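Re: weekly structure request thread

Next one in the queue (549 aa):
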Amino acid sequence: NKNLNFLNSKRQYNDVNRYLTISLFERKLLNGEKCLRTWLVYSEKKGCVFCGPCLLFDRDNYSQFSKDGFNDWKNAESRVSQHENSTKHKSNLITLKERANTLGTINVSLTKQLDEHINYWENVLRRVVATVKALSSRGLPLRGHNEKFGSTQNGNYLMAMELISEFDPFLAEHIGKFGQCGSGHTNYLSSTIYEEIIQLMADKIRQKIIDEIKTVKYYSIIVDSSPDISHVDQLSFVIRYVQENGVPIERFLQFLPNTGHKAIELFDSVTKLLNSYEIEIENCRGQSYDNARNMSGIYSGLQSRIKELNPLIEYVPCSAHSLNLVGSCAADSLLWGCLLDRLNKASKQLQSVNIDVSVIVDIYDSLIEYTKSLRNTIIFNEYENKAKLLSVVKEYKKSRNRVRKSFHDESRNQEQDFITNDSGFLEKLEYSDQVLADKGLPSIKTGVKNQNSILVMPPMLHNGRLTEEEVLNTYNVASVRIHIERLFARFKTFNILNKITSDFLQYIDNILLMCCILELEHLISSTEVNSPLFKINPSGLAQIHGLEM
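Done, posted below.
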């Protein structure tokens, strides 16, 4: 009664309009306490008040409170007090209470019926929520081709409900009663209800994550976009923070569909999402994205725009993404299982949640040193020997490299790189060595410079003239070159290397070094430039500068 609208209770007294007031429903006792007049009932339709007990049990209708209703608001307080103190009213009130104690009131029956109805659907929802939570936590689809019980194509959700009903009589009875009722009837078994349940659970979990973030205060953001199976670009938003127990954790927050690929569009999406959950950007301390320009650009990329809002937000590129690109490129050029295995292990370590920046640097340094160790000649010989053990063909001849015609859109640096890099020439250079080149290939210039060596170019390549010192240096270098080329020719002519057994292969570098030393000694002691190091003596044996072989 107290919350009803009393406008219809208007009654005019001469020039004054009076209405029913809420104070009439309260009674002040002699000790000053106030109690409600629960027996007084207001009718909005008539704009009058009635006495409930008298209206039910007063057959004589001795007063307005039990007949037509009372609306004399000018004398309301006195008339209501007079009625509630009357013998007839007290008798009717006692009769009502006695019947209520004996038979019970109608509201008790209605309340009991309502409680039974609520308990029934709560039991149904408990089973539905448990099924939806189990299926969604495993990433399983819920819906099938149809929504009919007993069908083999009704999906995982209805299949699970049927399975539970085999051991749950309550659910079996519910499915039998409401399973095939069709649309428009409440049964909590349709696709719309479990989609709503999934959304409610997601909102609850998301709110729990947000509360944790606000509690720990500081956090970092991880953002990346990728198209889903329906070709809709989804921007995934992940927040990394340290829990109160000191353990770092990454929490997925939300997908943002169709945000665009421009840096300003991504920036607006990230800031709007943080503002919608009332997560302060001032407490952010880190950001991590892939190496795309719109993400990692130092001038207008997403990381630079967010850093303008908070200079304390440090940008760390995604190490796993960077290593994945390096590993993919390495896999295209290398077939060595050990290197690929090392890359795979490093990639898994970089994806760990508990990893920090210092550990990432150590992993990269270790990987770089390991890769460098695979590039020397000894390691290559090991792989070559292992390949020969596994292969049926133990020997292979080195054929001449075919010269392929270059197309108009290709660079000629590949052939030049073979001369400088693949041949191993640069690895033999030491600090301040002088290199005489008769062709000015760009790769030769760059390679020699990187090795801190000196490149000597003939002046005629740049239309210059030789000085006396340059003529002497060119003559000395050319003399050495002639004898070294002649040395290699003698090796081929007499098949010297073919006579060396496999046990002496490890000493081949020392043998060649000794030959070069003998050649230099021969040049110093001989006055003839064309005097050969290898000669055939009258007995038909090869002789190296006076030594018979």
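The two ends are 128 Å apart (CA to CA). Residues 466-549 form one domain.
Next request, please.
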